[in-house]
Amino acid sequence: MQARSALFDLYGDHLRPRGGRAPVAALVKLLAPLGIAPPAVRTAVSRMVRQGWLDPLRLASGPGYSITPRAARRLDEAAARIYRTGRVSWDGRFDLLVLQTPTARRDRQRLAANLSFLGYGTLDEHTWVATRANEDVDLLLEEAGVRYERFTAAHAAGTPGAMGVVRRAWDLSEIGRAYERFVAEQRPLLAGVTVRSGDEEAYAARFRLVHAWRTFLFRDPQLPPALLPERWSGTAAAGFFDRHAARLRPAADRYVEQCLDVSNRTARQKGR
């Protein structure tokens, strides 16, 4: 688990509902159960500040960091998709992007990852498609310096034709197998965390569960039901995730509060 990715998870899942800010000492303490060392945390924080995701600030408990408005929007969008709180609807139209692809391989890879996160799949090297328009895509492409054209399109063959487009843009069979692997890998890990487990153990298990589930934000565009295969494995996987995330939430929340309280008490003692 990379420190930067873990910090996004930490802010999105635990700190955003608590004001989106925390002292550095708490960030270090909260990522320790995941095996992330303090230097890695501090390096990742500095990188996120440079990228515009975090702002440094002075808290009563000492130096800390808060999420920027840009990060808040991204985390809120991610949370809605992680917990699937919004109803997935479709008006029968696609959002179509025709790009002048960057020449540098690294730039192409970064652009592809960002477009995938926003729900776009690729039809060819230059053409990307989504079943719903994302309001952040124009800013993303402008910041990347990518020239593009954007269209709204409906398939003349209706839903059957649209399903053909979807299967060109996304490998639904592979995404389905990835959901099945997710459940198979997480089930034995979660089975060992019971009501007798400590809060730190439950917090770490839930954190890893959410972290693994979060990878589907870059793989699954969460298509409308009309465009999905029958007996879609993502539905069962979402139910599995929801059950265990909710089961472990109280213990995880207690551990987070404990770490924040300890950091605050330590800072107050140092200030005397």
Uncertain runs: none
Mean pLDDT: 91
Largest sheet: 4 strands, antiparallel
What is the share of helical residues?
A: 55-70%
Helix/strand/pairing category: alpha+beta
Radius of gyration: 21 Å
The number of distinct helices, counting runs of at least 4 residues, comes to 10
CA-CA gap between termini: 37 Å
H-E order = HEHHEEHEHEEHEHHHH
Describe the structure.
There is one protein chain. The strands form two sheets. The protein has a four-stranded antiparallel sheet, covered by helices on one side. It has a three-stranded antiparallel sheet with strand order 1-3-2. The chain has helices spanning 3-15, 24-31, 38-50, 69-82, 105-117, 137-143, 158-169, 172-191, 199-214, 233-271, and strands spanning 21-23, 54-59, 62-67, 93-99, 121-122, 127-130, 148-154. With 272 residues, the chain is of the alpha+beta class. Helix 8 (172-191) runs antiparallel to helix 9.
What are its keywords?
272 residues; alpha+beta; 4-stranded antiparallel beta sheet; 3-stranded antiparallel beta sheet; 10 helices
